[in-house]
Structures are given as C-alpha cells and as structure tokens.
C-alpha cells in the first residue's frame, strides 16, 4: 500500500492452498476496515500527483508497466496456477493479454476530449470537461485474477483515477506481485494500492467507504447484488461483471467437427470456471445423437492433472467451496432426472492426490427448467438441451436470468444475423467461442451485470462530465 508492503492492522493472516495438491503455499494478510481507510487515504492523496502529470506521461508509465508485465508474465502466471489451479498454458497468454490492455489504454490517456457545445448564445462559450471520478475500488474474483483486474485498472488509470484493489481471498499472490511492478515502472506512490482480505470484511469496508467514488466488481451474481446495495447508500458509481449460463447453439447446418471442438472448449476450458462458459449446449434434434457421441468421445480423452504440465487439458477446481458446489450440482442434476453420459464425479487418477479434481461431466435429456440449466455451476458440467426449430432455440437460449454470452454454430449467414439480433447477451459468437480482447466491449445483459469493459467507449465509464458556461 502506498508503495510498500505491510502486515494488516489486525495482525492476522489466512492460508491459501494449491488446488492441485491441497498444500498451503501462501499466508496472506487479513485486511481490516482500518487497512481500507489507510489505502483509500493514500489513493486520495495521490490523486493530485497523478492528475498533475500530463496525460501522455501517464500513458508512458502505463506502457512501461505493460513491458514489466510481459517480462514477469511467467512468474505471475505460475503464481495464479498455484492459487487457482488453471492451466499454465492458459494463464501465460492471459498475462500477455493483461499487458495488451495496458498498452491499449495507455494510448487513450491523452485522447479524452470534452466538447464545445453550440447553445445559440454568442456571449457564451459552453464546453465540457471529462474529469476523473477520484478514488475507485476494484474488486476481483479468483478465476482469472490479473486478466480481470486488467479489464478495469488501465482504463481507470488512463482516465486519471487512483485505485484500491481488493483481490479474492483465494488468489491474492499474483495481485501483490503485480502491484510491486508499479513502483518499478515509476508510478507515484499511492496511485495503485492493494488490500488483501475477505469480501465480508475488507471488501465490504471498501464498498462502504465514503471517499470511494466507484466500485468496479467482477464476481458472482450474489456478490454483485451485495455490492450494488452497499454502493447505493451514497450513490457510488457501480460496474458489475457477473455470472452466466451461456447457451451454445448448434444447428443442423453447422460444420459439426468445428462445433464439437467449440462446445468442448466452451465448457471444459479452465474446468468450466469461467463466466462465459457455454454451459448449456442446445442441439438441433436431427444431429443430437451423433453430436453427443462425438462430444463424449473427445471429452473422454481429456488428460486431467497437474495444470503446470503442457500435456494437461483439465486442471483442478480452484477452491474448497467451489469443489463442493460442483459436486452438489452433479448430484442435483442426477436427482432432477438428467442422464449422465460422461464423468459425473470426482477424479482421483495418478498425480492428483490431495487435489480437487472433477471429471468432465456431460448431461443429456436436460430440460431448461431444471436447476442444472438455470443456475451457474462454474465447473466442468455441460447440460445438453435438444430443440427442433430456430425459434425454439432462441426462446430456450433467452429463457435465463443471465445474459453474458451466447454461441451459434451455423453455415446459414441469414440465420447467424437473426441470432445476433435475437439473443439477449452482451457477446454473441458465431462459429467461434471464447474470443475477445481489449478493443471490444464486454459485459452482461440482465443479471450478468452492468457496464462495459474494453474498447474506446469504456474509458467514459471512468470519468464524470462537467459542463462549463463561460460568459465573456
Ligand atoms: P465472489 O462474488 O464470491 O467474490 C468476488 C470478489 O468479491 C472477491 O474478491 C470477494 O472477496 C469479494 N466480495 C464478496 N462479497 C463481498 C462484499 N459483500 N463486499 C465487497 N466485496 C465482496 O465471486 P468468486 O467466487 O470469486 O468468482 C466467481 C464468480 O465470478 C462467478 O459467478 C463468475 O461467473 C463471476 N465472473 C464474472 C466475470 C465477468 O466478466 N462477467 C468474469 C469472471 C468471473
């Protein structure tokens, strides 16, 4: 915090374990409301220094930071793997992507322009200034800690805000290592601060803090509701990136082999622990049985094990509560009458002792009213729902409280365009899945969130507009 590491005010710590082995590998300071007060004060003090820099100077520091992220990417990725068990082969590109987000918004730091507005008053000059919000809070989850932080942090900094970050209690290490790079890059102390700790303590204190102007949160629907309610007390700005139950729709005219690979990557990448997981696979009935056969064959070949090894396809489940939740949903799906055609329980093969592994699991015969089709599992569990017509596919796809993403596989471009209009989701992928980047807007419809990250427009979410009437 403010350029140095220090223990929490309460002097307490909590343990983080490695999901692959169950061994505790890190002790993390348990931040309190007093730590949040100090961090917010440091960020507040740094505001004038940060804004005193020319915007292009801020951009230069952010470019330097991008370089440092690239240099430290292997170490940062390894820390994330030890904390959340995702594949190193996935986390390393995520670090590269985080660096790209810094480069992209570094380039926008000196392009935030107000406007001169015609008012029909020749005696007046009327113009707008885009001013930073102030101190902003960034609260992140455990599934992709640094990449999801990078969806917010460079945008906030480019717009002139200073920040306090509260990473997930399950994955603090990479954020702490990352925060130290800001000093190396030459950022003034206090521009970027981190308080580790629990959501209900440090997180809630940050949301309630009167000097915090905006809370940007990525996490669960329930967490988002609490944040939104907490922030409403004093009308803070809020951005929420929440959960999903994304439909991945395969029509009979699709290129089937590509769709099978897309369906598997959609749900089993990161062991299903992604907000955009294509967790509901909607299959046109005419291709249903053949498609399921191919899917089960391919997914059944997945190598499960140590996420650091390049040959591993499926790693462990990140946290103990998440592991219990995934197994509980598998049991619920069986009770609801869905048919388990692959997996369906924990995995305990060689090299996984002590770890939290779940078999890639596929259910057929799912009805969209079942809990397995309505609630976010956040694990390697696929629910397959048959449909007959295009209209029925769109209706089932939209019949969900969520609206983060949707996939469509078809060779009919007119149908693809209809789908892009009809599907209620912040992102629609056609003949692809899980693509994205810093230059494209990302966010949710309905219960999947509020606001957008990425792209040129997102920077406007980090400023407030002042209108000036100047009478000569
Ligand atoms: P979570 O809601 O449990 O926690 C997220 C963060 O919020 C953590 O840092 C936690 O400590 C903090 N928190 C919890 N309660 C809080 C409170 N009352 N006040 C302040 N902070 C609080 O989520 P999680 O389990 O870490 O992450 C998984 C969820 O995140 C899934 O639902 C997933 O879909 C979602 N997610 C969404 C996106 C997206 O971009 N839409 C991306 C990744 C993950």
UniProtKB/TrEMBL annotation:
The name this protein goes by in its record: Aldehyde dehydrogenase
Active site: 241
Top-level taxon in the UniProt lineage: Bacteria
GO molecular function annotations of the record: oxidoreductase activity, acting on the aldehyde or oxo group of donors, NAD or NADP as acceptor
Membrane spanning residue stretches: none
Oxidoreductase recorded as keyword: yes
Family recorded in the similarity comment: Belongs to the aldehyde dehydrogenase family.
